[in-house]
Amino acid sequence: MPPMTRNLTCLTLAAFMVVAPLAPAPLLAKPATSTSPKAPVDSTGWMRADPKMDRFVADLMAKMTLDEKVGQLNLLTSNWESTGPTMRDSYKEDVRAGRVGAIFNAYTAKYTRELQALAVEGTRLKIPLIFGYDVIHGHRTIFPISLGEAASWDMQAIEKSARVSAIEASAEGIHWTFSPMVDIARDARWGRVSEGAGEDVYLGSLIAKARVRGYQGDDLSRPDTILATAKHFAAYGAAQAGRDYHTVDISERTLRDVYLPPFKAAADAGAATFMTSFNEVDGVPASGNHYLLTDVLRDKWGFKGFVVTDYTSINEMVPHGYSKDLKQAGEQAINAGVDMDMQGAVYMENLAKSVTEGKVDVQRVDAAVKAILEMKYRLGLFDDPYRYADTAREKATLYKPEFLEAARDVARKSIVLLKNKDNALPLAASAKSIAVIGPLGNSKEDMIGSWSAAGDRKTRPVTLLEGLQARAPKGTSVAFAKGASYDFAAEGKTDGFAEAIALAQKSDVIIAAVGEHWNMTGEAASRTSLDLPGNQQALLEELKKTGKPIIVVLMSGRPNSIGWADAHADAILEAWYPGTMGGHAIADVLYGDYNPSAKLPVTFPRNVGQVPIHYDMKNTGRPIELGAPGAKYVSRYLDTPNTPLYPFGYGLSYTSFTYSPVTIDKTKLRRGEKLTASVTVTNSGARDGEEVVQLYVRDLVGSVTRPVKELKGFEKVMLKKGEKRTIRFTLTDADLAFTRQDMSWGSEPGQFKLWVGPSSAEGSEANFELTE
Known about the structure:
Strand order of the largest sheet: 12-17-16-15-13-14
Number of strands: 28
Shape: globular
Helix content: 25-40%
């Protein structure tokens, strides 16, 4: 087959080029990669003018008292689930009294219908409720955790995951998801690394758009769409020491260049709502931060939806030391730009008084109410408040076979092959006895990870043991021994070792299923160590003594320190928490039915002492490269290399890919022109496979120091064995923009270097100059 050529135009992540939106995401089949003529889903349609809606909302607001307006600004939990200390048992009475505009943590068509009836049949103006829920990586059918999906580098797969999630959630009465989490995360100690897209601005921005499109579709009036929420605004992922809810202390430039662009991407994609974060930014809590919520989000980016707080984050401005009491906190929040108070009841109990005292302008309250009522109108809730509470649709929708197959497919695409010594994988037919050993080998609850919405932890998830037993060839035995525990208290204990070692000794190969308990990741799940918890490491070392091949399957929600496994295991798969169909997906990869193609969306450190670590760090004045080997007075550690265990963008395949040297069509790029970088990739192995071809750029000299590399494009390409293809990336001066010394956004003339390769640590390079 002759070489095929694809073009790729890189997106510009111009967070502060605020009037013009980001360049549109490339086509739906594979954003940033595809030549399919199908246009991407337009999830911004709700932002278009609607005079009929304007008249309806204006007429309704003219009938509302101040108390009724304030009522629309309150979001309460149904008490089914809680992520904070504040509960309000009177929520049903509050709904009947018109003091609530939305409810979260309520689902099923029956239950949401009952609650909706309290609002539309029990209040004067019959304004319907919005029902929200944390639909993060699936609703009933659970997909891999968000970090795992990011490892697919496949925007179509990620959008599909969000679409299935929306279909299932909406069938159970949910109108609104608190997703996507678009926080850039560079400290693996932080538990919420698992919920986002990793460390990179470019990749994270594409994923933000894909998730918004999947949730909202192209028409919010359809009853199988749900409102998306871009969270946590902003810089939550930069919590000091990786400790959740902790202080954020970053520069304005870092905020603009790193932490805001994915939010801008979500806004451009049409995210209907934004959620404030728990942390402070430059000394001001996010829920009271006028600069973020009004100056940036609304005035500069043109956001038209509504802003909700995270759980009681208005209340938390008091212990932050920013507000003297809850009344002042509510005034600061509404005046900063917060429209809806989640669970704190601060608006409910104080806001009307603040208006009458002149502390809050009623026009600000009206603006918040208007944004919320407009969203209810666009969802079709004024026409039919019960349109999402359809028990027949619910019964026909959940756990559809095609949804389960989609979850299996996305899980396969998310599994990263980190090591494969001497082609230990795929499993050979000669392996007639397989020992599955480790605490995650047969644990249903762990397969679906944290934030698994309404997912069933007890019966539905397919474990690794079950997946292997279903897939193993006839005549192959697959047996299990837990062997170790991931409980912190198990460190130093050897209970279960003997059973596991005995099983290993009589087996042909060991599949060591290790990692973290699902509740060790997600919210309030920070760690000071990235090592395997409990006595898992000790068990691995004992298993090594048997002399049997060891395949490590790692299940976790963060990069773990697995240096020993890298040195001693025969193969390593990072499976994350792979979801409902995870056991089947892992078995597909272990047996070679699926050739792994995932790439890391985060850097794996050698140990916790390297964090925060990310590929696009700056160089310092004494980079290690300038010193002789072992030189002392350079930027280095005494006890470990500077380099990570596995770099961003890294991932192996069962085949091999050969890259030609990169070529560029010009060495001088003028403003307004395009530069094309080309590379030919050949599948030089024995299997068909997919490769993620990655483009990185460095600005060598700037008015401020610049990162050593930045991802500017990628293409995920399928190549049959022996096939070659030329990949072309297009760069313009807009792709080279950043926040300059004077805090303006733009590019600067000068020398640049680009690389094209299989990861952030590999690739051939070329040099070019940007000129006026």
